[in-house]
Amino acid sequence: MAESAPLPFRAAVEALRGARLRPEIEIDPTKPPKRLAPHAYALEAAVVEGDEDLADGRLVLLHDPAGHDAWQGTFRLVTLVRAELEPEMAADPLLPEVCWSWLTGALQARGLACGEPSGTVTRAGSHYFGGLSERTPASQIEIRASWTPREGAGGVPDTASHLAAWCDLLCQIAGLPPVSQSHGEGSVVSLPQRRGPQTP
User: What confidence tens digit (pLDDT) does each residue in 166-177 have?
Assistant: First the structure.
């Protein structure tokens, strides 16, 4: 991150770097996109148990000091989350709505206000042929979303809490039970924990 970056952006990035996350989350900075905003910072994460990656994703923090009409603010969070599914879960016609509610619910459970949310939920199936015909058909779910975090003191959003909520979503889509119910209301339903991907 360049020293010339605006102070609110630098503070938002430092909060991301200092966030405390669940031990199953492995997270690292990655190269951010260059054309979406004047300033950007990106993280990639995976939910790991043993040698298995249960889900993975990417979270990008964008900042335009001049503001952005579509964002209705100066910051924007953009995410991609992916996981493999059990076939019976993939066939559920309500799956896209449920997955989107997990994202909005993760933010609400931590008391985070956001504006202009948008996104897509995509499920896909893979069938294998020829030399791979012995592999079991696989199904995947993918959530792409973006939202505008509310800016706090000094024009800086609470990016650490937004990152924690995003990690809650990652763990939920990976099928892990919540650490506690203290943030939410009632029971939380997660995807059945899948097995790791097979190698060709």
Answer: 999 999 998 888
